[in-house]
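Input/output pair, single chain:
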Amino acid sequence: IRLCMVYKDVFKTQLRALLRAGVEGNLHIMFPMIATLEELLTAKELLKEVAGELAEEGIVHRADVPVGIMIEVPSAAIIADILAPEVDFFSIGTNDLVQYTMAADRMNEHVAWLSDYFQPPVIRLIANVTQAAQKNGKWVGMCGEMAGDPLATPLLVGLGLSELSMNARSVPRIKNLVRQLTVERAKEWADQILTLRTMADIKKSLEEIGENFEV
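Output:
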């Protein structure tokens, strides 16, 4: 989004193309790497501006496009309650969120152990996002490795994730697991996980929970 803010003409051209193509399908627009409310409001204003220009030019386009953001930097997760009223949905990008939260590159062998989505700070940020989304009646999805990890599935369902995006090979396994879950029980497990203080404790608890299911 930062490049879009610098090169606004290019960004507006992209938005024009999206709105024009949107008449042919179910278009959703998701702004990436949003870190502040100001960035989101500016992006939305540019989208509104583009829609107005298309209308003035008499060009067929879709104006009622659902708008969401990627939650992939800690600042966005922390102010999710402020961002939620301004969007139609959230999508949590766990790979970047983990890296920026833990200040650790998973490709660096010396700190790779820190770059784990079961770290308590990461779990708490995800919970903060889902709670903000639920309070504002918005759905929240997730992409990244965590979404396709069966060890994480009961936790993610319990935290209130509405949608999980993963590679095709992971779908049957995760689908089978979700079918065995109840939201009520998953919520109890999620509340329990949020009280744990270390990554090791979180993984141990999730492994014990996983023994209840056939994966």
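The chain has a mean pLDDT of 97. The chain is about 55% helix and 10% strand.
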